[in-house]
Specification:
The complex is a heterodimer of chains A (219) and B (223).
Chain A: H1 6-42, H2 47-61, H3 65-78, H4 85-110, H5 114-122, H6 127-157, H7 169-180, H8 183-218
Chain B: H1 8-12, H2 14-48, H3 54-65, H4 69-79, H5 89-114, H6 118-126, H7 131-161, H8 173-184, H9 187-216
Helix pairs in contact in B: 2-5, 2-7, 2-8, 3-5, 4-5, 5-7, 6-7, 7-9, 8-9
Classes of the chains: A mainly alpha (219), B mainly alpha (223).
């Protein structure tokens, strides 16, 4: 029975980690693009669109990611689409990531002092010019640390996709446990692999915050 | 699209749904009370505590904050029994949520403590208060008040995250949903309905925490 060495366990888990990484990157990129579009609607002039994005964010931040996954998994199926787990996982995580990034970035844009808008307006800049030359360059710097920090949440979020059957690190952990009967070791290693991915990002987020703030103060 | 929506099925299972809601509420009440207490203790250690206690607390906080809740839950429920600690599904779910919220609230509360002006500590000392009395009476309450909105958000995040405890067969709201789904094959309706319930629970919880904040922190202590 216990023919599994620690190395066997680690190797199998690391192989599955690829899919955690791929899914995280897909969700982050997809969510980033969608989040940027939603951000412009959220801070734009059209009230209807502003409210739509507001409720979108409310909905995705106020419900469990697990339920969103199930709805994507079973909901898309209602339209006659055959949904493999990876499609549902990618779709749900993208929508979820977009909601959080929109809200994070909105905070960053709104942290730019009112006077900056007024100053650029007084220079006869249009909305697009104000955004492009004045607001976004400043907001971007504020946005980098929390965005990197949120990547940690995305990586941890992918663990939930194991529940609808997507084979990534968490699912592999369960499968390896079922084969080896060593839950303590296996889940311990799984936790350490997640930690190895997330901790550097957390640290990077913290140091970026410190660095970019210093730059701001010296300005 | 030829699918006919039928939410009528759900009504048949109202006892399971009510039971699930009750368990989810129970989980979050325990997690919030015990977890925030753990968070306060850890925040004290990280901000003001003795140096030898800091590394283990820091390790706990960093480890929990950088691993998924699902893995923490599996580790506690499946990983600890071989070591002789066997917990029931609900105990494991409760413990995992307390451990999780403890780590997150520690960081939030620490930020509140560290935002306390130095003069507050000196003022406490000048009234012959011990460092502990100063912390308890002068520092902690304004610190909690400062970070109450962030702490409330974290409690809501943990409540929503608790949906995965159905994976160790703890009978919360998502367990009830899975149960109904497996009986009726009405997957979309079941998950849609409980998503709405979770949203309502989140809104309710936010309201309760805001009320609680106003009761605990009278306006006179405001910054």
């Amino acid at each position: 029975m216990s023919d599994f060495t620690i190395w066997d366990i680690v190797r199998n888990l690391l192989l599955a980690t690829r899919w955690t990484v791929v899914l995280s990157i897909a969700a982050f990129v997809g969510g980033g693009v969608l989040g940027a579009i939603l951000l412009f609607l959220r801070i734009g002039k059209r009230r209807l669109l502003r409210n739509f994005v507001k409720y979108y964010v409310e909905l995705f931040q106020g419900t469990p990611l697990l339920m969103q996954l199930f709805l994507a998994f079973f909901g898309l199926g209602l339209f006659g689409i055959d949904v493999p787990a990876w499609v549902a996982a990618g779709a749900a995580l993208t929508l979820w990531t977009a909601a959080f990034l929109t809200e994070i970035w909105r905070g960053c844009v709104e942290s730019i002092a009112r006077g900056q808008w007024e100053a650029s307006a007084s220079l006869a800049m249009g909305y697009v010019q104000q955004m492009r030359h004045v607001i976004l360059p400043q907001a971007l710097r504020v946005a980098v640390p929390p965005t990197v920090g949120f990547l940690v949440q995305v990586i941890k979020g992918t663990a939930v996709t194991s529940i609808i059957g997507f084979v990534e690190l968490s699912k592999a952990g369960t499968e390896v446990t079922n084969a080896t009967f060593e839950p303590f070791t296996v889940y311990g290693i799984v936790a350490l692999i997640y930690f190895a991915m997330c901790w550097p990002l957390s640290k990077a987020s913290q140091s970026l915050e410190r660095r970019l703030n210093v730059a701001h103060r010296n300005q | 699209m030829t699918y006919n929506f039928d939410f009528g099925w759900l009504l048949v299972y109202y006892p399971q749904i009510l039971h699930g809601i009750a368990i989810t509420i129970e989980l979050i009440v325990v997690a919030a009370t015990v977890g925030i207490t753990v968070g306060i203790c850890c925040a004290w250690v990280r901000a003001l505590g003795p140096a030898w206690l800091k590394p283990p607390v820091t390790a706990y906080v960093e480890l929990i904050r950088n691993t998924p809740f699902l893995i923490q839950l599996f580790f506690i429920y499946f990983g600890l029994p071989p070591l002789g600690l066997r917990l029931s599904e609900l105990e494991a779910a409760n413990l995992a949520m307390v451990v999780n919220l403890g780590a997150y609230s520690c960081e939030i509360i620490r930020a509140g403590i560290q935002a306390t002006p130095k003069g507050q500590f000196e003022a406490g000392a000048s009234l012959a208060m011990t460092p502990f009395e100063t912390f308890r009476h002068v520092v902690l309450v304004p610190a909690l008040q400062r970070i109450w909105p962030a702490l409330s958000s974290q409690v809501i995040i943990v409540m929503l995250g608790s949906a995965v405890v159905s994976q160790i067969a703890a009978q919360d709201l998502s367990f009830a949903t899975n149960f109904i789904q497996s009986r009726t094959f009405r997957a979309f309706e079941a998950y849609f309905f409980s998503t709405v319930l979770y949203l309502l629970l989140a809104i309710l919880l936010r309201w309760v925490l805001a009320r609680l904040g106003r009761i605990i922190f009278p306006r006179t202590v405001a910054r």
